[in-house]
User: What shape does this take?
Amino acid sequence: MSIPPDIPPEQSLIEYPSAFPIKVMGRNVDGFAEAMAELALLHDPAFNAATI
Assistant: This one.
């Protein structure tokens, strides 16, 4: 099997960067959503906690 060549960005069907949902599961405890928002902000400073 051969590796397909890279697709030029102008031909891609996906726009980058793109927003996509991430499902997070955990215990139903106080502060869980806030803790996940803090974690998301570490990886994406533009994250909007209001989207949770």
